UniProtKB/TrEMBL annotation:
InterPro entries assigned to the protein according to its UniProt record, in alphabetical order: Methyltransf_11 (IPR013216), SAM-dependent_MTases_sf (IPR029063)
Annotated protein name in UniProt: Methyltransferase type 11 domain-containing protein
PANTHER family xrefs: 2-METHOXY-6-POLYPRENYL-1,4-BENZOQUINOL METHYLASE, MITOCHONDRIAL, METHYLTRANSFERASE
Pfam families: Methyltransf_11
């Protein structure tokens, strides 16, 4: 079961509050291309694809075939890319069906990471890539929200997996870490813009706060300089499945 339930309200909050435009994601576009080296023959699985924002972006940016898989019916109903039902323990694809697997802000929702790593390895061709975009335990300093909601950073440190835990789970499944890099995104032009569309329901760590902790963080956020740009860094962790040589 996911850390929070992605019902219709959560899906709507996520689409409204977390989907960014191409300019805001320019660094992600460049760094994913650097690792993926997409060609028209590349087939990528977007696992836990939510409302399909990354799946649609990768199709548009790189001209590749993207298969989206998502467990929540509400997220699938809101999706901007065709989406199959499934989850990290049950991926509805054949063995060695894809060249790469993308997981964006999903790993903390997966209840059994070693089992998921084995299932992901099954659908990945030998030598294929796993690209994980996430905030990891112990690495929250790049996320601006946590400067205001400090208690949420402590919750993330306690409840989200660390890089080491994810690398270990995938290591058991025969995959090796090849890169870890923080990548910036322009979340909003100004803090005032971010506040105008701010919704607690779009951020899992904020949903895990008490109402009092949330109110404290919100007052810190409202007291900050409204003209400052909001730049956030999540990590890109890249692993490669053992097997055939790659180009
Ligand atoms: C924060 S959203 C991210 C959605 C999308 N990847 C994105 O970045 O826009 C987390 C997603 O993970 C999905 N999820 C939860 N548990 C999962 C699991 N065990 N396997 C795959 N996806 C899962 C949720 O339904 C939700 O859509």
């Amino acid at each position: 079961m996911a850390m929070i339930e992605y019902d219709r309200q959560a899906a709507a909050a996520f689409v409204a509050g977390r989907h960014l435009g191409d300019d805001a994601l320019a660094a992600w576009r460049e760094r994913v291309a650097h690792h993926l080296r997409p060609t028209p023959a590349t087939r990528l699985l977007d696992l836990g694809s939510g409302a399909g924002h990354w799946a649609a972006a990768f199709s548009r940016w790189y001209g590749i075939d993207v298969v989206a898989v998502e467990p929540s019916a509400a997220m699938r109903a809101a999706a901007e890319h065709p989406t199959l039902q499934g989850d990290a323990a049950n991926i509805p694809l054949d063995d060695a069906a894809v060249d790469a697997v993308w997981l964006s802000t999903v790993v903390h929702h997966i209840p059994d990471l070693p089992a998921a790593a084995t299932e992901i390895r099954r659908v990945l061709r030998p030598g294929g890539l796993i690209l994980i975009r996430s905030a990891f335990a112990g690495r929250t300093e790049g996320v601006s929200l946590f400067r205001h909601f400090r208690e949420a950073a402590r919750i993330l440190d306690a409840r989200f997996p660390s890089v080491e835990a994810v690398v270990s789970a995938f290591g058991t499944a025969g995959c090796t870490e090849i890169a870890l890099e923080p990548i910036p995104q322009r979340t909003a032009e100004t803090l005032a813009d971010a506040l105008a569309t701010f919704d607690r329901a779009a951020h899992t760590p904020l949903l895990l706060l008490s109402d009092e902790e949330y109110a404290t963080g919100l007052s810190r956020l409202r007291a900050a300089d409204p003209t400052e740009p909001v730049i956030d860094c999540l990590d890109l962790l890249v692993l490669r499945a053992q097997g055939a040589a790659h180009a």
